[in-house]
Amino acid sequence: MTAYMFSASRTSFTGNSVRRSLCRRAVELLATSLLLFLSTGRVDANTTVRVYSLMYHENVPDNFVEAVNAGFNASLASRQWTVAHNMRVKVTAPRTTSTPPIVALENAIKENEGSFFLLLGPMGDFTTNPSFVPTLKSQNLVAFAPLTASTASRGWNPNLYFLRVSATAELLALIRYAIGQLRTLRLGFMYLQDVSFGEEEYSLAVRIMYRMGHEFCCVFTVKSSLTGQGLDDGFRSAWIAFAKRNPQAVILFSPPSKDTEKFVRMIVSDARTNKAFLLAPSILQLVMERVWREALNVVSAPFVSGQVVLAGINPLATDTQYSAIKRFQENVRSYLKSHPGVTVFNSSDDFDHDDIDGQLMVYGWLVGEVLSQALNTSEWLSSREAFMESLYDQRRYVVDDLVFGDYGNECVGLAAAHGAICRCNQGGKAVHVRVLTDGYRLLDADSGMMMFDSSQCYSNRVDVRAPFSAVLFKVTDDPVAMNAAEEMDRGSSLLENIRVGEEGRLFINAITLPSSDIVSGLKSELSKRITDAVLGVVSGSVLDVPGVAFIDPVVLEPRLNKYRRHVIHLSPTLGQQFYVVVSYLADKVREGFHAVIRSSEGDDIGDLLSTTLVTFGMALQSTTIMSGNTSMRDRLPDRGTVYVMGLNTGDAELIADHLERHGSLLVVVPFFDMILRHKEFVSAFEGKASADRLLFATNLPHWADRNTRSEFVQQFHKAEKNSSRWTPLTLLGYAASRFAKAVISPMRVVNADAVVEAVFAQYMVAVDDM
């Protein structure tokens, strides 16, 4: 811990949809897009690469099918439909969406017997036809970028080349969001039996929850009506058992069906569940807007923004923070200019309506971008076998700032140990969790993005650990406390919650309320939501609330430290500051030592300061105890050293003026008083030499030192590029989050008691060089 002189420098301290059927566009697509080309020997530059599009499904609305295919076409059109060595790409689609994928596949095989061609898609669960994948294998064909949520097709199979994340990755992201961001104490799960989507995910979800120290409060499951069982058979009794547990949130993992729609209607209509959050995978985006709207209308219930949470597989069409999306918009606008009416968008669109169509169009465009890279060497196109081998030659595709891969084939020897990706046909590594907001628009949720390490191919093998859920109070009736909370919140948020690793485990939620309600508000949070810890500004009385850990609490009034096992101090206590300051001044000052204290614990604080002074052979000549509203004017001595504690608005300026008028006076303030009123001190002492006679003690390296040798501050500056935000409170918030991250790193189960035990079990917690 260091005693600092205060420097006067500021730097020291659903729109109208145009519907066109795939069948009506078949002629146009044949004229401008699809696939096939000869495959033996050297490939001629004039060869046509034929691509057969299976991106359709008889149960998927035409506008969604059109969106995917239009995005794909826009990507290829931006390249004038050419790939390696000016080879042309021709895309072909069946004349009707009722054509089964296996039939379209067999027709393509007949048309291109013995020669090279590509398959785009398919869309939907193709595993329902048992001969589809075996046919791919027998013909050495690869289904490129299947758009399916089914887990039956996942796992290593070189004939299936996935770009989108798996349903299990979406499940992990939804569980993480429900536990970490929503802080759900009672989480339910819904799935249907005897379908290819839901049962396997439920088993995985149970294991994940158990490993994190949680369990589902209730599970709703019935046999799918798609298997022939009546929709009402067992549904009512299953619902009664489910709803009586009052779930706060429900993960809905079932395919679009009448069963799913009925379940959603029950959620909305039952008073025990109608306030619950509903979390669903991307496959349900196709129907959720309509189903939710209809369910609300039936019971005349109001729409609640954020109640429906949906996983997404790629960025929104409006998310121009990505360079890839900026280029997507340019390509699509250009394509739609010459192909009007093929989607709900037009050539001058901002893509700010029909979010689902937009997402699907982005997916199609990304598929086109990746496929163009996969076709960029003519030797790879000499045969079906050569092309398949090239796809798994440790491939990674970078589309501007989006990445797909790595892909790898069978490995030999120690290749895997040396970093090779083996037996991997899964490309997507990011899940975007979104909320349904006013106007039924989709917006990215706070802390909703989850990224997976590219070295981990299959998401069901990821070691998921419990999130750390903390709260930070923003006090509405105290401007100083509010400012401090906002700065600390900004600092803590510098740790991006995006990876499945340690960074992605920290969730810090701000709660806004008046100061008189902090204690009751915290108790309410503990009874309703997962709350592992409290960070930031607190009142002294709230520290007595049990069942939660306090990590480096910043109190608004000077208080002495009392041993509370669940209160973890990172900043120096008042007693520690006394010791450091007095030891620093012991051989430097010869005149009297005084104290001016504004605190409900003033007498005890004065006694401790006096005792500390005696330890170093000094004495406290005078102590002034003040009430909260008493002015400090005329209470400061003219010479010697004065420890001033418990500052109010205006006191920083008063101290600065007093030091200017009395050159033999030294003023010391507590660390929290300094940082809570840092802006006031900077303003009051700017350009004044007397700043050298204002001292405070801290254990932090200087937050605004551009030439710092502190690795910790270097990392802080790297995370916060805006130097105007390099404040002590922002650094303090950053430090608390880094500390929490370090503590929970080895922990699989996280709760308040476990966090406290982990802290006391460690001799020290190291963060960078601190």
From TrEMBL:
GO biological process terms held by the UniProt record: cAMP biosynthetic process
Keyword Electron transport attached: no
Keyword hit for Transcription regulation: no
EC primary class: lyase
Topological relation to the membrane, as annotated: Multi-pass membrane protein
Record keywords, A-Z: ATP-binding, cAMP biosynthesis, Glycoprotein, Lyase, Magnesium, Membrane, Metal-binding, Nucleotide-binding, Transmembrane, Transmembrane helix
GO molecular function, one term: ATP binding
EC number(s) stated in the UniProt entry for this protein: 4.6.1.1
Reaction(s) this enzyme catalyzes, per UniProt: ATP = 3',5'-cyclic AMP + diphosphate
Cofactor(s) of this protein: Mg(2+)
This protein's GO CC annotations: membrane
Predominant place of localization: membrane
Pfam families membership: Peripla_BP_A-cyclase, Peripla_BP_A-cyclase_1
Residue ranges annotated for the Receptor-type adenylate cyclase GRESAG 4.1/3 periplasmic binding protein-like domain, each copy included: 169-312, 465-770
Compartments, as annotated in UniProt: Membrane
Coiled coil: none
Similarity comment: Belongs to the adenylyl cyclase class-3 family.
Protein name: adenylate cyclase
Organism field: Trypanosoma congolense (strain IL3000)
